[in-house]
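Structure (tokenized):
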């Protein structure tokens, strides 16, 4: 479970969201986002899924772990080739 939590933190950073912004998009409290990112064990799977879905809506693609590397994140390209939904200085 802690690998998933680390990947969610990386995904948030990738799209340039604050913890508060991600919490609002996810429908969870900022404290839940903090607990997820800290790898705390007492976080409901439902909350983790809400955060993951919100990040996917922001263009994040999650990749599975393989024998050579752990799980990862990437930004999906939009149809115009832009890889960020939060351009520099916005978001």
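Design, position by position:
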């Amino acid at each position: 479970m802690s690998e998933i939590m680390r990947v969610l933190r990386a995904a948030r950073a990738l799209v340039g969201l604050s913890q508060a912004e991600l919490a609002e998009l996810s429908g969870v409290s900022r404290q839940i986002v903090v607990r997820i990112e800290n790898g705390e064990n007492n976080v409901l799977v439902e909350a983790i899924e809400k955060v993951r879905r919100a990040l996917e809506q922001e263009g994040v693609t999650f990749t599975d772990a393989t024998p050579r590397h752990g799980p990862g994140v990437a930004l999906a390209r939009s149809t115009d080739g832009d890889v960020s939904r939060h351009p520099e200085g916005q978001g």
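Reviewer-requested clarification: Helices lie at 2-15, 19-26, 30-37, 45-57. Strands lie at 60-63, 72-75.
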